[in-house]
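>> received
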Amino acid sequence: MARSAKAKAAPTSSSGGKAAKKKKWSKGKVKDKAQHAVVLDKATYDRILKEVPTFRFISQSILIERLKINGSLARVAIRHLEKEGQIKRIVHHSSQLVYTRATGGGGAE
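>> returned
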């Protein structure tokens, strides 16, 4: 009788142990919240006029990353530089605009 009780107890305890131990999901890596400028100050504006026309590849995401400004400021800065002729458009796509520095010669690079 003790033997049969032991045999019955073993399967329930092993399956019960699996049910009791749940998978602990990792939270994943938490990225720091970006603190990008939402208003242009004089120093950032001067950096845009001085540095951006020297970049070989100019896009909204590049300006956000390097100058720590938000997306709307990056778009305005790109439009301003294109209107002044300091940069020229390479690719016009509905979601991504790609620019490069304007060359003085105007010939092939």
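>> The two ends are 92 Å apart (CA to CA).
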